[in-house]
Amino acid sequence: MQKSESSFSKRPLILAQQRTESTFDQIPVINLENATSADPDVRRALADEIRDACINVGFFYVKNHSIAEDTISQATAASKRFFALPQVQKDVLDIHKSSNFKGYTALLGENANPENRGDLHEGFDIGWEARDAGEWTGLREGDGAMSGSNVWPEGLDGFRDTVLEYYHAAVAVGQALFPLFALALDLPEDFFDDKTTKPAAIMRLLYYPPQTGVVDDRVEGIGAHTDYECFTILWQDSVQALQVLNNAGKWVNAVPIPGTLVVNLGDQFARWTNDVFKSTVHRAINRSGVERYSIPLFFGTDYDVKLEALLSCVDEQYPAKYEVVTAGDYVKSRLEATYAHSK
Length: 343
Ligand SMILES: O=C(O)CCC(=O)C(=O)O
Ligand SMILES: [Fe+2]
Hints:
Blueprint: E1 29-31, H1 40-56, E2 59-63, H2 69-83, H3 87-91, E3 103-105, E4 122-126, H4 159-184, E5 200-208, E6 222-225, E7 231-236, E8 242-245, E9 251-253, E10 261-265, H5 267-272, E11 282-284, E12 292-300, E13 306-307, E14 325-326, H6 327-339
Parallel strand pairs: 1-2
Antiparallel strand pairs: 2-10, 3-4, 4-5, 5-12, 6-11, 7-10, 7-12, 8-9, 8-11, 13-14
The protein binds 2-oxoglutaric acid and fe (ii) ion.
2-oxoglutaric acid is lined by residues 204, 206, 222, 227, 234, 236, 242, 282, 284, 294, 296.
Family: Belongs to the iron/ascorbate-dependent oxidoreductase family.
Organism: Antrodiella citrinella
Domain Fe2OG dioxygenase: 199-301
């Protein structure tokens, strides 16, 4: 059973290391309605809920997240149109041709778990792209391989606008979450403001064909992995496939809940917090018999920001576990490893 919240609410945060004895059977649902309440006590209470989820589970659903249903349904429709294109039209955009990990991933083109044989999904990856004059252009001096523009398919009217509409809405959710994560870490609410000035957010349209017939256990929709950035904001359709590994080694279904998004922590937050915040292993397997679509957006700190353990998360007994790297170098090395098998 999950440990009670009170056992982890003592400061400093390092005491939360006790969470290694805890496990979970359910993923909590958190209501974001009051995320920007004028009352600091209300924001604090919400941050405490988030803190508990981050320490014990590493996953939570959010409801009242502020992305309009229309924006979601149009992005999903655009995604379906893209993956229905003839294979040659998608191959033109192959991510392996890109120096900055943008574009199309074919079936088995990615391998999230090195022990597997390739992931049974198709993907389409984009990064930040401005829509209006005056917005940050996305040109990143010094960001090396992570810089550069998106690639877009020919002949899909409205695709770019629709996908970017969702991208920007999801980035706004992420920008609203960072102050809450800061509060949850007993930091000033604006702690991440100067570290997230150029949204380092990669978004993927994902398509999972159903796995039928004899199932090879080494082929999964996406193999067991942790995410690379601070946190992921995932929209999933109504098809159950996502599973989350608890401390007892049991896969817990992240059951689709209408009107919610799934938020999970990634390895950048594990590094900031010396593993006090959990970057939880997850996978997706679509044995439903029908096609599944999802849209994760991975939100990290700016690529030039150093990932360094917070003082509240380190002491003599728990020294810093990770070497200090920049967010950009870290994400790039993880992406290179993910796509290496199909080069
Ligand atoms: O499609 C999903 O439900 C999960 C996707 C995922 O874990 C990822 O892309 O990192
Ligand atoms: Fe993931």
